[in-house]
Amino acid sequence: MKLKTLALSAALMALAGGASADGHGVKVGMITTLSGGGAGLGIDVRDGFMLAIAQSGRDDIEVIIEDDQRKPDVAVQLADKMIQAENVDVMTGIIWSNLAMAVVPSATAQGKFYLSPNAGPSALAGAGCHENYFNVAWQNDNLHEAAGAHATSAGYTNSFILAPNYPAGQDALTGYKRTYEGALAGEIFTQLGQTDYAAEIAQIRASDADSVFFFLPGGMGISFLKQYADSGIDLPVVGPAFSFDQGILQAVGDAALGVVNTSQWNKDIDNPTNAAFVETFQAEYDRLPSLYASQGFDTANLLISALETASPSDADAFRAALQAADFDSTRGDFAFGPNHHPIQDIYAREVIKEGDIYTNKIIGVALENHGDAYAGDCSF
Amino acid sequence: MIRESYLNTFVLALLIAVPAWAVVANEPFTITLATRAVIFALAATGLNIALGLGGMVSLGHAVFFGIGGYAMGILAHHAQTYTPLMDGLFLIEGTKSMPVIWLVAMVTSGIAALLIGLVSLRTGGVYFIMITLAFGQMFYYFSISWATYGGEDGLSIYLRNDFPGLNTLVPINFFAICFTILLIVLLLNALIAKSPFGLALNAARQVPQRAEAVGLNPQRLKLVAFVISGVITGLAGALFADLNRFVSPTMFSWQTSGEIMIFIILGGVARLCGPVVGAVVFVMLEHVLGDLSDYWHIYLGVLLLLVVMFVRGGIVGLIAGKHVAHD
Amino acid sequence: MTTLLIIEQVLNGLQFGIMLFLMAAGLTLIFGVMGLINLAHGSLYMVGAFAAAAVAGLTGSFVLALMAAMAAAAIAGVLVETVVIRRLYAADHLDQVLATFALILIFSEGTRWVFGSFPLFLNIPAYLSGPITLPGGIEYPLYRLFLIGIGLLVAAGLGLLITRTRIGIQIRAGENDREMIAALGVDISRLYTLVFALGAALAGLAGALVGAIQSVQVGMGEPVLILAFVVIVIGGIGSIKGALIGSILVGLTDTLGGIFLPQLFKLFMEPATAQTSGSALASMAIYILMAAVLIWRPTGLFGARA
Fold first, then answer.
1. Alpha-carbon dihedral of residues C171, C177, C182, C185, nearest 10 degrees?
2. Residue B150 to residue A167, Cβ atoms within 8 A
3. Do A252 and C19 make contact, defined as CB atoms within 8 angstroms?
4. Is the pLDDT of residue A8 over 50?
């Protein structure tokens, strides 16, 4: 069994000089992507999560970490194992919506708590919501809605929008259109995993668009941005944070400079928790934290805050403690809506260069205290 | 060297003994792993009929695996949401009954195998490998963009489907169902190999001209074998979806086709229990190596490489010798 | 849609096809000469891209990066050929599939182990970046024209190599009758290593060239690998000419299908449905093309009769 039970936390504990006497112990099952192409995101979530656990100084939180290889069937199998064999109380860690859809409904149906550090598919926010499912990142549409709001306030009136042809891509365009008030110069669904965007860029050039919105996560976004920058088109680009994250910005380079992207977190958000997080994360792992690391960190802190007042064995009390969200998040004010999804500010950021490192700085708030569009369909 | 029939008995006995131990020791996850191995073994046994008996190297068997999976997913999804599957000319309702789902899975994957076989068998050799791969990719991309049934997100079923008289949510019960099916299919496989059809197919694989000269139609024989093969892999797909209570386009991916083929090569091509041995060993490797390091794919790769370079005829060949029963 | 845009899109399809050709040429050569199904060809492409990114990062020179890419891929190729592949020529396709699949696992995770889990940076050099204006007023990225140029050069070079040189004669002879050329005293094992290294170097070059406008990441080789297989099967295995024509066909089908199928569907569907179902069909288009070609000509357009 890959029981990476926390040696780190134990060590820090010893330094702190003893266990915290109050609070309740818990067994956490983390299923995340640690091998293969998408491993960077899972590693960040894990590292952020474990940093918070270590800093809490608690040795009664046991974390079991498993690698889902980004395969839904493997994730389901690991979830079965954690529920049947390890008997965990709380689960977390999944990065991708399709894996979350495979794992979360049956885990919560079996009475486990699930805290999502990244994926927020609309099905789990609306009619398919569950009282034991808490999303600590965002509902999938949120960052796209913020991009639409930013486009509107920036005065764009004719956007060209594109995303891959799969559920998250279709949600992205829907989310953008929900808050964007201008007209559309074009709307394209690209192929999932597509790497050459010459044809789409030619269509953008031929249209009379005044701005471009895209949602192309991972390598797709890198390819698009490089090719777009090389095409000589200079229309402003807006997108969600996923293509402008700390992990991949270095691979995009100058092509990303000046692009506005939306995120609920950035390393320059001015609050003590965030400052300490950025500093300790860098000291511990020798790299700048990413969005995903911040989400992992916040997820762990939410869990720790709830454990201060209740134990998962008392499900109602523990759920109420989670719902209260009484913790200092890295993004400032954080609360749960009626469907256990965040209500938070979402910022517009701009890609800048600090020395040799590409990173983001906040240029404004795109949406304030923003919830999601599906809360109304949810009843526990 | 051990006789192949002893080895087969041993492997199947092991597949009973380990889950039985797991029940006693209260290790339900071991049963889940064993069930996974059994279902993979079933899928690979299906492919082995095309590949081992018929000499058709199909890199597209994920099509049937996926169709079986989606047959389960779609029927159970409609039953779960109380929406009719179709209410045009007839009213077709979804269902949560395993036998009905299996039947639908087998019929639909059989039809798909017939159509794909008709087209693909016009080619041969590497072209056959590649055209079956192409069909796999078509189904993969189609399922990703098929929004009605979840697209890339796939379909989640909250509760495992029902089997008359058994609580399928108890892991050992579901294992028993899958294992029984595997036994029946292995028996069928052995019968087919010894039947006039199997002998004719074998002749068509080895010397098509001579088979033709004695009045056999090699193409038709191969097509029939391909359809049987697709039906079995389709059934395995339905079971796999039920094991996970989830189905997604990954079941259609070329990696899935590749893995099903690897079970056979690892265990031994055209050996009755080759796919079983291959699937069991692969699932075990995946489980054990995964605990060693985040980079465990490297170990897996090296092991597979060693098998292919130094163990001709797969694991069954290594233990039971080179003799292939039906040659 | 204007004529100019259509011309530009045809150019894009052509360019995508040429990129595929760089990959497919090596694959078809290895396949034709040695009868080897090399699933690990995509890994050599990845090795090329990573080597280029590393060298470009150190030296800042794109030319050096390209050379490093070819060298690294060729070395990896020779290593793989002498250690593993050489034992498999006599084996059937199944063993080759398993062995090269295993090589993919080793290469991918090995690369991630060395370079980490995040994509690497590799960019177009300044002298090749930006668009230029073509006759007729089409603005087209210079780098993509450069890609087309390199691709055609490689095609011409391979053509000359095969038809005009001694090695070419041996390669062609090897495709026709392996035992015979061994009997004629050609060092077959050296020839195989050479062809494998050449194929690998081409894959590495393709990886570096494409990596400059795409994402240099682990797993980048497999999607291209599948496309390259489609190309060589359409063209006929072993035929360089077939690979060239096959890749252009695939490039054009993929690019133009992605643009025109959704438009076509809009004629008789509501726009939103047309957009998604058109895109869905477009993503299947090249596989449908491949199946159609094989139904029509079971050994590809320029393949020898089996």
1. -70
2. yes
3. no
4. no
Least Cα distance to B239 among B19, B8, B26, B37 occurs for B37
| CA-based nearest distance B151→chain A, Å | 6
Give the separation between CA A338 and CA A326, rounded to whole angstroms.
16
Query: Considering CB atoms only, which of B138, B298, B300 is closest to C287?
Result: B138
Q: Let me know whether A93 and A14 are in one domain.
A: yes
User: Is residue C176 within 8 angstroms of chain A, CB to CB?
Assistant: no
In a domain, A18, yes or no: yes
In this structure, the answer to whether residues A27 and A75 fall within a common structural domain is yes
Judgement on whether residues A114 and A47 belong to the same structural domain of the protein:
yes
Asked if B149 is an interface residue toward chain A (Cβ–Cβ < 8 A), one would say no
Strands A183-190 and A158-164: parallel
Q: Which domain holds residue C99?
A: 10-219
**What's the confidence (pLDDT) of residue C117?**
80
DSSP state of B160: P
Nearest to B139 by CA among B67, B228, B230: B67
Q: Torsion-angle region of residue C134: left (phi > 0), alpha (psi -120 to 50) or beta?
A: beta
Helices and strands per DSSP (H, E), number in chain C:
11, 2
Q: Which of A40, A187, A251 sits opposite C215 (nearest CB)?
A: A251
> Looking at the complex, does the CB of residue A194 fall below 8 Å from at least one CB of chain B?
no
Could you tell me if residue A323 is inside a domain? Answer: yes
How many A-B residue pairs are in contact by the CB < 8 A criterion? 87
List the CATH number of the domain containing A353: 3.40.50.2300
Question: What is the structure's pLDDT at C237?
Answer: 86
C94: chain B residues, CB-CB within 8 Å? 51, 57, 261, 264-265, 269
| A170 assigned to some structural domain | yes
Residues 6+ apart with CB under 8 A from B13: none
Cβ A101–B290 below 8 Å, yes or no? no
Residues in chain A with CB shorter than 8 Å from the CB of C124 are 226, 230
- The reply to whether ipTM tops 0.85 is yes
Q: Give the per-residue pLDDT at A18.
A: 36
Dihedral sign, CA of A315, A320, A321, A323? Answer: positive
Structure tokens at B220: 């038709």
User: Is A102 within 8 Å of B156 when comparing Cβ atoms?
Assistant: yes
Residue A148 lies in a domain: yes
pLDDT tens, N- to C-terminus, chain B (327 residues): 678 888 889 999 999 999 999 999 888 888 999 999 999 999 999 999 999 899 999 999 999 999 999 999 999 999 888 888 777 667 778 888 999 999 999 999 999 999 999 999 988 888 898 899 989 999 999 998 887 888 888 888 878 899 998 888 888 999 999 999 999 999 999 999 999 999 999 888 888 788 788 888 888 999 999 999 999 999 999 999 999 889 999 999 998 999 999 899 889 888 899 999 999 999 998 888 877 777 888 988 998 898 888 887 888 888 887 654 444
Q: Which residue of A has its CA nearest to C223?
A: A193
Chain B residues with beta carbon closer than 8 angstroms to that of C306:
124-125, 127
With contacts defined as CB-CB under 8 Å, which chain A residues touch B175? none
Which residues from chain B sit within 8 angstroms of residue C298, using beta carbons? Answer: 122-124, 127
Q: Closest Cα of chain B to A5: distance in Å? A: 13
| pTM (predicted TM-score) | 0.87
Task: Indicate the residue of A1, A76, A97 with minimum beta-carbon distance to B153.
Answer: A97
Amino acid at B241: A
CATH class as words, domain B4-320: mainly alpha
Give the CA radius of gyration of chain B.
20
Neighbours of chain B (3+ CB pairs under 8 A): A, C
Same domain, A171 and A229: yes
Q: Please give the residue range of the domain that contains residue A174.
A: 142-263+346-377
Chain C residues whose beta carbon lies within 8 Å of the beta carbon of residue A39 = 112, 117
Phi, psi of A67 (to 5 degrees): -100, 120
Determine, for residues B258 and C101 on separate chains, whether the beta-carbon distance falls below 8 Å. Answer: yes
